[in-house]
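Handout, page 2. Input:
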Amino acid sequence: MKHRAPGPRTPHSTYRLQVSPDFDLYAAARVLPYLHDLGVDWVYLSPLLASEPGSTHGYDVVAFDHVDPERGGEEGLAALSAEARRLGMGVLVDIVPNHVGVATPAEDPWWWDVLKLGRESEHASAFDVDWAAGDGRILIPVVGDDDEDAITIEQGEVRYHDQRFPLAPGTTTLDEQHYELVSWRAADEDLNYRRFFAVNTLAAVRVEDPEVFAETHVEIKRWFDEGLVDGLRVDHPDGLRDPKRYLDDLAALTGGAYVLVEKILEPGEELPRDWATAGTTGYDALALVDRVLTDPAGEAPLTALEDRLRGTSVDWGRMVHDNKRAVADGILHSEVLRITREVTRVVEGADEDAVADAVAELLACFPVYRSYLPEGRHHLDEAFAAARSERPDLAATYDVLEPVLHDEWGQPARRFQQTSGMVMAKGVEDCSFYRWSRLTSLNEVGGDPSVFAIGVDDFHAAMAARQDEWPDSMTTLSTHDTKRGEDVRARITVLAEEPGHWERALDELLRLAPVPDPAFGSLLWQAVLGAWTPDHLPDLRERLHGYAEKAMREAGDRTTWTEPDEAYESQVHAAVDSVFDSEEVRGVLVDLAARIEEAAQANSLAAKLLALTIPGVPDVYQGSELWETSLVDPDNRRPVDFDHRAAVLAGTAEDDAAAKLHVTCSALTLRRERPELFTSYAPVAASGSAAGHVVAYDRGGAISVVTRLPVGLAAAGGWGDTTLDLPEGRWHDVLTGLDTDGRLAGPLGTHPVALLVRAQD
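Output:
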């Protein structure tokens, strides 16, 4: 059943475009004919509201009442919508309800007004500020070390280098302002406004206030009133005070339009059934697709390799706990202290230090991103049990906290729920994922790297449940937030089938280009191997240096963003340079890349067909109909050559990923033109010597067939007598145009995947 109010339209598929000043709405409109030819049903746009000047991503919204002029403005959206309508396509837009950009205060009229007038501002209630904690002032952590003298008053404004802040009416001194410019180092402890994670330049807004909701959605409402937009993707709902209520409000505003939430589910966790949403943005599906294509036999040898490189074994649960605790005690300690203040307001005589310690421990022990009380109360109970075990010395404080944090209407519980997701994201995605390098294709947003692989039967069970419960949820392989593009992961996945060759190659690479931390070296060389394609060689050096810097500093164990270790970083960057400057290093890489290439391409096509045909609405991230070998952002937001893709689709240009584009186009077109073939889910069994190397399922008339573990398949001599147990009738592969009797050597002899429909008589 579907868990949302019936909306006017539901997409058969989407295609994500990153709209920016360099690729505005007019440029997006020009690529719509190509997307339509590709088989795409809806275009899916990154945030469009006015954002910080020059923003490449649009998540730093500064005004809610108009489309960003740098992205094409109102006229650009009208032009794109008109072209979409001409082609029969829908429009899905990413929105950012949780926060606004305040890096340039003069660009955000609300923030500027609050800084100017303080609590008297008409917009003061829009921001989540603890005025009392700042003695009635907002603390703004922008001042560099020993640089307070650079703060001046000039031309009726407060200036700090090139940053401008308002002067309160009738005032002439800094201490008369409703804000205080403080050291950037004060953010961890003293910050008194809620942010997006630990980003000081993104201030949270209180959309739970009906007036704030109305004012922040005035332009979004216009889109639906005027029929410009058909659906929305909601960024970071876990930052909201009450996501369910927000989604109800959004459904009322849009008339029950198609809405997705960017919600990360931990293994075994379910999306609340009573939310007014069609589902998630697809990280849950991505994790399952990657793992059904991963060889479970690789777990033991790759674990042993990781242990050898580290000199100790990895306890993933312990690593996650300790990194989350470090976040709660470090960059997000100001949020812990805010919760503590909320607790002491309702509990007389509470020991503030003990409460802060206990709250930080509960955040470190929380098993999922957040609860939505009363939904998810068992997660809170689990956190209390784990925290009591971890820190029995705080037992009395937990006794005090337990009823307070279970009170769904109380301020402490609500703020705790908003904070737990921040701690999870910073401690896991942005830290632990860079510290465990066993098989980094598994270190992906929405996935748990300790879950190495899943079997075909478990995959089928998950997909059947998905069809029953969330049939319109999104499926995806790559996004603007993935740590590694889909084909980077597909290449790395081969290492689970080739652990011995990988270990020998890695040892040689670490010998030729030594780095201080061999385990980090493994993570780095996996990224190099994953991104290794000749087409990208001209810019690959720069891209890998960018990745290495981000990965090192996010890991945070040897060097950090705020205190970089230049000696350590220079050795890692030297290893990156060796990829291009050392013939010996290149020789090792070329040999390894050649060994995995055929299997990697099989994995890529298998993952793509799975993502395009399993239950849900498939999204194609911009450009990923050809090889998607991007690394973490901003690398994955690079410009896409749509002219080349259109030429490959038209048959007037060549590309070594043409087979991937063919699979993408065939699957998208079939879903759009014959949606009745994708209304159910049933596994299709295989028998024969290679039956363990196929995943096949019937969606109600369209049967997907993909190869898994291609190295093992080749070693076993291919498909041989392996046969699918097809339903009655004559079946036809839309990828090759050939009929099949079920013997896999036929349809999978051309491509490692097949998409079967009944042949037309």
